[in-house]
Amino acid sequence: MPVEQVAFVSGPVAVRRPSRASGTRRSLVGLAFVAPTAAIVAALFLVPLAILVYMSFTDWPLLGDPTFNGLKNYRQLGSDDQFDKDFQGNFIEQVVILRIDYTDGSVWRRP
Fold first, then answer.
1. FRET pair for 17, CA 20 to 30 Å: which of 7, 45, 98, 104?
2. Is the model's pTM score more than 0.90?
3. Cα-based distances in Å from 84 to 71, 97, 110
4. DSSP state of 67
5. What ranges in the chain are assigned the alpha helix state H?
6. Is-contact 70 77, C-beta < 8 A?
7. Chunked in runs of 10, what are the mean pLDDT values of the chain (111 residues)?
């Protein structure tokens, strides 16, 4: 049985670059993997957010049809005492309590 000889070439080796078509194909494959997640994000986050923005510009009773009233809801916030109390409570919680907790968690730990 004859023995084949293999010659090893030293030096630069020509590397075949991928064509543009394969780059486009990789992009399409990547989009195919991302598309289901993007659809779920749209369905569970963006659609409810859009509905919420629409609702904020309407007067929508619980058992009735919505009536568009523009910026009236936002103008009423300045004269609403309950909004002021809620805003102050959220401000204290977000700025004071949570920042201390995130900055130095040892404040809340027991020895």
1. 7
2. no
3. 18, 19, 35
4. E
5. 20-41, 47-56, 72-76, 81-91, 98-103
6. no
7. 61 65 80 94 93 93 91 88 91 80 61 54
User: Angle CA(4)–CA(6)–CA(9) in degrees, nearest 5?
Assistant: 165
* CA separation for the pair 42, 91 (Å, rounded): 30
Tokens representing 32 are 């195919």
**Distance from CA of residue 74 to its chain's centroid?**
26
Classify 6 as helix, strand or coil: coil
93 and 104 Cβ atoms separated by less than 8 Å:
no
Distance CA 28, CA 20 (A): 12
How far is residue 46's CA from residue 50's CA, in Å, rounded to a whole number?
A: 6
Position 71 scores a pLDDT of 92
Cα–Cα distance measured from residue 49 to residue 40, given in angstroms and rounded to the nearest whole number? 14
